[in-house]
Amino acid sequence: MQYPKIFVFILLICVSCKSGDEYAAKEVEYTRLLEETRTTYAPDRRTDRVAIEAVTRNNSLILRGYTTVPEVYRLLSDRIREDRGVVDSITLLTPGQTNDAYGLVRVSVANIRTEPGHSQELTSQALMGTPVQVLDQQDGWFFIRTPDRYLAWLEKGALTRLDRDAISAWFDGDLSTCVPAQSAVMSEPDGGRIVSEIVAGNILRRTGEERGRFTEVYLPDGRHGWVATADLAPYESLSKPVKVATDAILETAFAQVGKPYLWGGTSTKAMDCSGFTKTAYYLNGYVIPRDASQQVHAGIEVPLDDNFSQLQRGDLLFFGNHRADGSERITHVGFYLQNGRFLHAGADNDYITENSLREGDPDYAEHRRTSLLRARRLTENTAGVVPVDQAFRSLYTKSSSR
């Protein structure tokens, strides 16, 4: 029996509507699943990403995007295989086994940005000799992971790309670190031209040659030159600390007083609040989380009271406010000193300085006192306090993939 063309047309519309309704419902289902997955596996997009969306196209549901979490990739791939009509367009961003999947920062201070492009927000910095994972690239920029697990974009000129074996060989070499806030690698031991400036915490490789008061070094990109021997210390003095030495950390912190505030800064040139605390710890052997809202989860909690009676010199103070739902929003961090005083890099001061939390003191910071929320004590073997060597090696060893 033949049906009139109009009935065939109506039938096709009904089938299409039914199919469209089915995929619309499936899109809602997967959107909810993806949100739950993000909350569970990547609640902080600064350290892990589930950047995946569900979209309907031509009677197909497509899951497209990327994740940095292998477990998420496996779970979603298994789910999609069991669900006919769903297209898998998910990319797993993790470093490969070869093909220059890692790198070393080759400039004294590399600027890391939230998105690729020089006009994008400066979100952090990395120092010469720091290892990174290379996860992706776009228009001359690399999407990287740093030893504090931070995810951001680095311009290609600031990085020397290496495979796992080459980066491992670099760290097995005779390394030194720059000690003063600023020094230079020169083409000749008696002067010559500047090969590169260097700053505290930069990592260089000794060639074994010394002339008078100078030591010859290699930079991560193979350039070589001469540095005043007094400006260098063995890498092990930085990378393998015995314990968290509060007095030494505060000595390093006080050496930064008067330096300018810089949003995203994490070097001895200029720092933001958490870059200041992070740098003081790094130069004394420990990698701690990048931002104040991450550092507040490191170490152990210290109770706060009006007299600061439970605080010890060197504890971290955290400031902020409360969101509409009552949750804390941490926006600032500094070092507690004693007698209600603290040391911090604040945008309100424009430079690193001391302030008081006690009303009546000439440098009393009322807005800091009213916004003080938490205090933490960072010691060895506590959450988020990782020796430099351990943090670096976990980035490029075979056990580094989650």
TrEMBL record:
Keywords: Hydrolase, Protease, Thiol protease. It comes from the Bacteria. The keyword Transmembrane does not apply. The keyword Protease applies. One of its GO terms (molecular function) is cysteine-type peptidase activity. One of its GO terms (biological process) is proteolysis. SUPFAM superfamilies: Cysteine proteinases. Residues 243-379 form the NlpC/P60 domain. PANTHER family: MUREIN DD-ENDOPEPTIDASE MEPH-RELATED. Belongs to the peptidase C40 family. This is SH3-like domain-containing protein. The lineage of its organism: Bacteria, Pseudomonadati, Bacteroidota, Saprospiria, Saprospirales.
